[in-house]
């Protein structure tokens, strides 16, 4: 059960990161300018939420590292996942419900050369959000859930490092319990020891 929970946590984190990265390249908002011609502009996710790409890439890194980290880092990564999910979730939900002027300002300024929040707001006649902001917000809910689940179950995870240690210990134990063979006797002779001395004392 814990192994399955860990897998779901890692997959949920990777999924949220992947949706964020893909969404950053997609159209989030369509803007109609009030310039008489009704010029239409499209705003990508990375422009609407500038932190979307770096935080989504960080989420992917967290998901990849989560499967091999020790106990302390599991808690750290769980907290980071919750924080990233909360930040991107709030920003994405704002765009999905009612895009703020700040989400389209960079694109409008780039197209018109006019800057400033008030000036940009005067230029924008209407904005329409695509499904991408809502999808990204949902993905961040999944990320928050994955982070919380990491904090709850992290102590019961068995890491790959633990498995390697157990395998090494088992191998060492097996080697220590095997009979004294010809190779061991040759090693004893090379060190100046008499391999038959132990046998004579028995």
Task: Outline the structure in words.
The structure is a single chain. The radius of gyration is 29 Å and the shape is elongated. Helices cover 70% and strands 9% of the residues. The longest helix has 27 residues, at 71-97. Strand 1 (27-33) and strand 2 form a beta hairpin. It has 10 helices and 3 strands; from the N terminus they run H-E-E-H-H-H-H-H-E-H-H-H-H.
Topology:
Layout: H1 2-23, E1 27-33, E2 40-44, H2 45-48, H3 52-66, H4 71-97, H5 101-112, H6 117-123, E3 124-129, H7 132-153, H8 160-177, H9 182-190, H10 197-201
Antiparallel strand pairs: 1-2, 1-3
Helix pairs in contact: 1-3, 1-7, 3-4, 4-7, 5-6
* CATH topology name: Butyryl-CoA Dehydrogenase, subunit A, domain 3
Under the CATH scheme, which architecture would be assigned? Up-down Bundle
- Which of globular, elongated, flat, extended, rod-shaped describes the shape? elongated
Characterize the biggest β-sheet: 3 strands, antiparallel
Strand content: 5-15%
Helicity range: 55-70%
How many β-strand stretches?
A: 3
Distance between the termini: 51 Å
What is the succession of H and E elements? Answer: HEEHHHHHEHHHH
**Arithmetic mean of pLDDT:** 82
Q: Structural class from helices and strands? A: mainly alpha
Broad CATH class: Mainly Alpha
Contiguous runs where pLDDT drops below 50 for at least 5 residues: none
For the record, the count of structural domains works out to 1
Number of helices: 10
Order of strands across the widest beta sheet?
2-1-3
Radius of gyration: 29 Å
Summary?
The protein is mainly alpha-helical and 202 residues long. Helix content is 70%, strand content 9%.
């Amino acid at each position: 059960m814990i192994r399955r929970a860990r897998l779901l946590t890692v997959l949920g984190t990777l999924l949220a990161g992947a949706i964020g990265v893909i969404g950053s390249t997609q159209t989030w908002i369509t803007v109609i300018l009030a310039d008489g011609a009704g010029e239409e502009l499209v705003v990508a996710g990375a422009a609407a939420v500038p932190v979307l790409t770096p935080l989504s890439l960080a989420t992917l890194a967290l998901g990849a590292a989560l499967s091999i980290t020790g106990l302390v880092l599991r808690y750290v990564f769980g907290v980071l996942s919750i924080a990233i999910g909360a930040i991107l979730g709030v920003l994405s939900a704002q765009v999905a419900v009612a895009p703020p002027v700040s989400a389209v300002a960079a694109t409008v300024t780039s197209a018109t050369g006019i800057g400033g929040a008030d000036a940009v707001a005067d230029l924008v006649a209407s904005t329409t959000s695509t499904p991408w902001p809502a999808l990204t917000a949902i993905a961040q809910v999944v990320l928050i859930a994955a982070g919380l689940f990491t904090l709850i179950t992290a102590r019961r995870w068995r890491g790959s490092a633990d498995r390697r240690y157990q395998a090494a210990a088992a191998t060492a134990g097996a080697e220590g319990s095997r009979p004294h063979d010809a190779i061991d006797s040759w090693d004893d002779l090379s060190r100046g020891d008499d391999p038959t001395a132990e046998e004579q004392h028995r």
